[in-house]
Amino acid sequence: MSTKWRPATQLVHGGTIRSQYGETSEAIYLTQGFVYETAEAAEARFKGESEGYIYARYGSPTNDMFEKRMCLLEGAEEARAMASGMAAVAAAILCQVKAGDHIVAARALFGSCRWVVETLAPKYGVECTLVDGRDIANWEKAIRKNTKVFFLESPTNPTLEVIDIAGVAKLANQIGAKVVVDNVFATPLFQKPLELGAHVVVYSATKHIDGQGRCLGGVVLSDKQWIDENLQDYFRHTGPAMSPFNAWTLLKGIETLPLRVRQQTENAARIADLLAGHPKIAKVIYPGRADHPQADIIAKQMSGGSTLVCLELKGGKAAAFALQNALDVVKISNNLGDAKSLITHPGTTTHKNLGDEARAELGISAGTLRLSAGIEDTDDLIEDFARALDKVPG
Ligand SMILES: Cc1ncc(COP(=O)(O)O)c(C=O)c1O
After folding, report:
1. Are 53 and 151 in the same domain?
2. Which of 32, 37, 204, 378 is the most buried if burial means most Cβ atoms within 10 Å?
3. Judgement on whether residues 245 and 181 belong to the same structural domain of the protein
4. Which three-class secondary structure string do you get for 326-352?
5. Average pLDDT over all residues of the chain
């Protein structure tokens, strides 16, 4: 097993633990607990004097393989696999703050992530300031003496805004705060937050890592010291561990991640180009296009475009609904990163709870749609959009 392999090789072989049977595919260890040869062996395991598993809430072999493979891909020392992306986000933030601490977060966050910092954390005495994360000066202005965590996603859901991760990390390092990056939209292939100076990376593995709509999952990655000092006890004692069955499903998903993401990105780029010139479309935001408002930051920190496209129809909600209803290959669904192309209307689904004012602040209008491009034949998708746009009134 080499740590020098390139990502596509790591994702097929990295972290594999073979049993005595020498199975080709990774085994699923569906067990809650483990037996010990002797009482002394149990004692030593619990004291941390001998290596081995204790209880599946703490860790187990299939989850271990998934965590090790993710570490190899991300360039992280340690990872913890969690039951969902939200379990991972909540753990990454809550495990490292206490009453009296302060969080600065970008206001453009997935709705549930925003709820964790804006509503949940203050209930426990942790205040949060939300900023327009695109301007680094806003992060600096929000810093207080008790600021402990900076939290952001980039590109953002759904308007694909981009935040200068290295810039935020530089500020955080000046005050000893930690930067947590939700890297779901970029994927671990196109953006490496740890290399850019972030301290903790989180994923909803439900998205590109599974990529085939089968199970929920999440993962938190960082250095060993941060995990030992912050996450380890939280993880063991609050119980967000991933099911070993899901860890196995995700291990299988991860093997084909580069193939899927490459095809999805090609499809997204072609669709973005088609939409950008269409008379019924007011705006297209796509991180792979030169007209993205932050193309300079994208060039600095991302090595690929995106599997997602944000589009705004001139005809508002009626037009956005008409387009969704007229699409055939593309399905209406609020998930993303899937092999199937999926489209959603954030204003009435994923970002419904934000309210009109917060949505307007984030640039989510009644005509905004978020497309997650799948791996279908590009021409079928292009024809689907062209045909559906013809049916949109106006
Ligand atoms: C950016 C982002 N972070 C976190 C999550 C939460 O992930 P999960 O649904 O796996 O809990 C999602 C989507 O649901 C997301 O889009």
Report:
1. yes
2. 204
3. yes
4. HCCCCEECCCCCCCCCEEECHHHCCCH
5. 96
